[in-house]
Amino acid sequence: MTENFEFRVLASDGAARRGEITMPRGTIRTPAFMPVGTGGTVKAMYLDQVRDLGSDIILGNTYHLMLRPGAERVARLGGLHEFARWPHPILTDSGGFQVMSLAQLRKITEQGVKFRSHIDGTVYEMSPERSIEIQGLLDSDIQMQLDECTALPAEHKAIEKAMELSLRWAERCKTAFGTQPGKAMFGIVQGGDVPALRERSALALRDLDLKGYAVGGLAVGEPQQVMLDMLEVTNPLLPETKPRYLMGVGTPDDILKSVARGIDMFDCVMPTRAGRHGLAYTRRGKINLKNARHAEDHRPLDEESDCPAARDYSRAYLHHLVKSGESLAGMLLTWNNLAYYQSLMADIRSAIEAGRFADRAGEITENWARGDLPAL
User: Are 93 and 186 in contact (CB under 8 A)?
Assistant: First the structure.
């Protein structure tokens, strides 16, 4: 295994790219979906299961881990990989999005963000340097710059101000990160739904010559087409030799359409959150196990799936677990959902390699449109 961080594009089909990131803790096959392990765990899953489903990398959250159990404590316990028993790559976000969305009484200045914990009201300060320091204490492999993410819709002036501040913070994060062999720091393109601001952000970050680039501030309330339009503006300006990561996205349909526009990496809480709320993702589309139509249905979610949760348990049983509030409901449906997401990513990678991504994407979309099996 390489001692460096390297990215290679192995095949392309239109703008869609099949590649791989190699680093000391493992190889990440792209396009990749990263399950979200907010507090050092992918909710309702054993990490061994997550790995067995095909996950090469998981995501940890700087904000949550700095509050509990604390970054310094994780470092004393050997870092997040040892702490969570996940020896493979980990990406940590900067904590900025959670500060903006969860923290109480936050105040943003040039220096950073001052905020109160949503857990106990303790006051913290998060600067670009402190964010990188925390991610270093966690010992993550890919670290994200601190940025200011504005919810959409927003005024042009507010979007521009946040974008410019994020660029200045990117420079400070790069300096704080320094040279760390085998690891990477990614910059984050901001600019809301304003094409000219997205262009300015992408070009300025490209000049920093970072190891990877994320597109942030999307899937925050805007229509899907706006997100796709911003990708079409942004991606052609980013280096072809560096990975591109669309943060916080998304639905299977979002993923298909974003891969078609050149995105290599994704993360989202959707498959795990949906699983805990009775919703299953399948090749036939979404299935709501709360629905009474499943109460006496002996068929599985998907008889062709390789995942036992989808193949071996009846819909009637899953419906019963969901309606009864049993913990096993969330466990089985999360297992199913992550299995579906990883099978979708493997399907996408194979289609790009075969030069038929657009055709395969159309077939997948048609399967969703046909919908679930008719009720018994």
Answer: no
Residues of the chain with CATH 3.20.20.105: 6-268
Q: What is the CA 236 to chain-centroid distance, rounded?
A: 21
At 52-72, the pLDDT tens digits run 999 999 999 999 999 999 999
Q: State residue 247's pLDDT score.
A: 97
Contacts of range 231-234, beta carbons closer than 8 Å, 24 or more positions apart: 231/258, 231/261, 231/262, 231/263, 232/261, 233/195, 233/198, 233/199, 234/189, 234/198, 234/199, 234/201, 234/202
Say whether 364 sits in a helix, a strand or coil: helix
CB distance 181 to 211 below 8 Å: no
Which strands sit side by side in the sheet containing 6-13, from one edge to the other? 6-13, 16-23, 26-30
CA dist 148 and 161 (Å) reads 9
CATH among 3.40.50.1220, 3.20.20.105, 1.10.340.30, 3.20.20.150 for 6-268 = 3.20.20.105
pLDDT for the residue 1: 57
The tokens 């087409």 sit on which residue? 225
Query: What pTM did the predictor assign?
Result: 0.97
Question: CA 143 to CA 183: how far, in whole Å?
Answer: 8
- The stretches in the chain having pLDDT less than 70 are 1, 102-104
Q: Which residues of 205-222 are buried (b: 16+ CB within 10 A; e: fewer)?
A: bbeeebbbbbbbbbbbeb
End-to-end CA distance of the chain: 52
Per-residue pLDDT tens over the stretch 310-322: 999 999 999 999 9
Task: Name the nearest CA neighbour of 87 among 56, 66, 62.
Answer: 56
Q: Which residues are catalytic?
A: 93, 267
- Give, as one character, the DSSP assignment of residue 235: G
Q: What is the structure's pLDDT at 103?
A: 66
